[in-house]
Amino acid sequence: MDIQSIGIVGAGQMGNGIAHVMALAGYDVLMTDISQDALDAAVALISRNLDRQVSREKISQSDKDAAMARIKTTPTLADLGPCDLIVEAATERETIKQKIFDDLLPHLAPHTILTSNTSSISITRLASRTDRPERFMGFHFMNPVPVMQLVELIRGIATDGPTYDACLKVVEKLGKTAASAEDFPAFIVNRILMPMINEAVYTLYEGVGSVKSIDESMKLGANHPMGPLELADFIGLDTCLAIMNVLHDGLADTKYRPCPLLTKYVEAGWLGRKTQRGFYDYRGEVPVPTR
Ligand code: CAA
Question: For 151-181, what is each residue's pLDDT tens digit?
Fold first, then answer.
């Protein structure tokens, strides 16, 4: 199956990055969100991120112009129905994703492949509640999408071969690398990454180190590009907590117990960069540790 048009649900951090790379690779993109403001902000951000690539001579000005011309937005979810491939990139909460799929189903073309950018929720369960579990997959991008090379492709128990192959072709056209993951909680990257981030929060919680010393240790001592707490702020502390809960519930092992300090930050609404406060305070010129 030849995919040409991509529908993207959600114009947040992941949705706008996915729209960016899909349009740059030549796909027609239709992005939807419940808020027109979010859609306008996403298009402006894509334009700025493409400018960044133009100024670093990764792409030409005409590549940017062509990509921007391929991106359309709509506040109406049903408009995505005829797209060849839909990538759901809404908030990491199963009830929200479920409602989106329920609302989309009556409008979908028979051939449409449905995918979710979920970072941890069961693909098999999401698929089972649709009319097309064989044409349903996990299509998991990493943040920042234009920079990160990996895409995890997750087959649900019913996903058929042609659906997997069609998604693999899309990943290849994006110039990215696919990792095939089985459908178990948090797949590969987050199964490994989130317990590390959670352990960094425990290290802070137990007073073993400060925000600064923990991040510096992992940057300088393990060559990580970002410290684990800085990375948690970048991903979003609500997303980190949601993934830890999926691991804890899904694998029923206390080693995945979310750190109470992570829960406290989320309860405070200190969700990281997106709310300007998390393990660092981003409201000034330079980020300042909050502990
Ligand atoms: N769009 C386009 N280009 C971007 C960009 C964006 N949004 N963000 C950064 N870039 C580009 C920059 O222009 C720069 O390009 P050049 O190499 O051509 O100079 C390059 O990326 C590096 O950016 P910077 O120089 O600004 O900053 P940096 O060197 O500190 O790198 C980083 C930034 C790439 C984010 C790096 O810190 C990093 O790799 N961090 C770790 C990110 C990570 O682990 N992501 C995975 C999170 S887990 C996940 O996403 C899964 C999940 O489900 C939660």
Answer: 999 999 999 999 999 999 999 999 999 999 9
Residues 228-260 have pLDDT tens digits of: 999 999 999 999 999 999 999 999 999 999 999
CA distances from 59 to 6, 54, 88, 122 (A): 21, 5, 27, 36
Sign of CA dihedral 20, 26, 32, 36: positive
- For residue 144, whether the previous peptide bond is cis, meaning omega lies within 30 degrees of 0, is yes
Atom of ligand 1 nearest to the CA of 143: 50
Q: Whose CA is nearest to atom 49 of ligand 1?
A: 142
Atom 16 (ligand 1) nearest CA? 56
Ligand 1 centroid, distance to 283 Cα (angstroms): 21
13 Cα to the center of ligand 1, angstroms: 13
Nearest residue (CA) to ligand 1, atom 43 = 143
**What structural domains does the chain harbor?**
5-181 (3.40.50.720), 191-289 (1.10.1040.10)
